[in-house]
Design goal:
DUF481 domain-containing protein, 2 helices, two-stranded antiparallel ribbon, mainly beta, DUF481, about 230 residues, eight-stranded antiparallel beta sheet, single chain
């Protein structure tokens, strides 16, 4: 009798009626299992996502430094754990970090405030854009403008991994003031010859719109270096 009452109530409420038992309550019909709350009607949610990176299974430890010198063991740290209310779900974590930043400060050369945004951030590619305003105190220092006063600054940084042993870096820095604009661009190519030994080939271009009597001046510089990391 109770089964019939529960079935009629579900039919009036507009829910589908099933007579076959559910896996969660194999000894009772579906109507009885739902009516006595042995089987929840709420479906599981699988829409858990992170705005910056996908959620990934939690590892026991994460390697933060992997030296290549013989006899030196790598160091590891335990990652942060995001606790979920349902204990039946495996622990998850997300490598989320802010893509934008605000920096302000200065010294005897200049005072400025800069806003930065990482437009692209992946294990192989990094594209960062910065722009801001400030006050130039010492002319031409730190690749700045020719006269003191208010300036507008911008910077673009591109880093690209080229395989396991090579990388490419491009940096463009510009500062514009009342009298002139100073532009500096650097292109660098790094290749790992041996562990801790790197060959760097770079090209630098500097352009001053006030140089050469106001007609503009461009200087270039090239270099090839071998660097050793201690």
């Amino acid at each position: 009798m109770d089964d019939m009452v529960a079935g009629w109530w579900l039919a009036i409420a507009g829910l589908p009626i099933h007579t076959s038992p559910l896996p969660a309550a194999p000894d009772h019909p579906a109507v009885v299992a739902i009516a006595t709350r042995q089987v929840p009607l709420r479906l599981p949610c699988y829409r858990l996502a992170c705005s910056d990176a996908e959620w990934t299974p939690l590892a026991s430890s994460r390697r933060i430094w992997s030296p290549r010198a013989p006899g030196v063991r790598p160091r590891s740290v335990a990652p942060a754990v995001v606790k979920l209310p349902d204990r039946r779900v495996a622990p998850l974590h997300s490598p989320h970090a802010r893509r934008d930043s605000i920096r302000s400060g200065g010294n005897h050369v200049k005072w400025d405030a800069t806003y930065g945004l990482e437009a692209i951030r992946s294990p192989e590619t990094l594209l960062k854009v910065e722009f801001g305003t400030g006050v130039r105190i010492e002319p031409y220092t730190d690749y700045g403008t020719a006269v003191p006063g208010l300036v507008a600054r911008g910077r673009l940084l591109l880093s690209q991994e080229l395989g396991r042993h090579a990388s490419f870096t491009q940096q463009v820095q510009v500062e514009a003031g009342r009298e002139n604009t100073f532009l500096r661009q650097t292109l660098a190519f790094d290749y790992e010859l041996f562990p801790q030994w790197t060959l760097r080939s770079d090209f630098e271009l500097r352009h001053d719109t006030l140089g050469n009597g106001g007609r503009g001046r461009t200087d270039t510089e090239r270099s090839v270096k071998v660097r050793y990391t201690f």
